[in-house]
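Progress narrative, Year 2. Work on UVR domain-containing protein from Paenibacillus vini advanced from sequence curation to structure prediction during this period.
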Amino acid sequence: MCAGGEAEVKEYNEILDRIISLLDGTDRGLYTEMVKRMQDAAERFDFEAAAKYRDQLDTVNYLLNKEKVIGFTEENRNIVITEKLDDNTVKLFLVKRNRVLISKKINLQVHPSPEVLIKEQTELILSCFREDPETAAACSGDITRDEIDEAQIIYSYLQGSSCNYFHLPQEWIDSQDIAGIEEALINL
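Result:
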């Protein structure tokens, strides 16, 4: 580019625009091209070139996933997660940003009714997600590398496991919307 003229600079800028579009999610054309080039190289038995494209695709996937995790962390969501461990046991997680605030096993046989269980979970959710100065300070500001790593674990768990979850709006907590929380838990 440096030794070239106006045409080379224009081509260079177009390539950068395509890379930026790929990374910000507005155009997957470059990704599709890379997959096609990898497949074409493999069909020609040019396995070195195919491996190069595969490695580049892995890098792009890694970057795209990191971007999702950073966005996930920045949103600072209240997440309620349940996972059925067996017929009688459910695990409840309450997560804020990248922090697991509560991790609790619940024995379903101990509770007299599903309604009582929902009410207990609602009270726990309201008490746990209430904003206090310490939690607010810990969940604000710039995201550190450690937070990204921790959020990656949570994000991967939500995407890949058999858990159920929902994002609890802060307004529901602030307004003590018991009915909304209970309905979300029932539908979970």
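The chain has a mean pLDDT of 81. The chain has eight helices and four strands.
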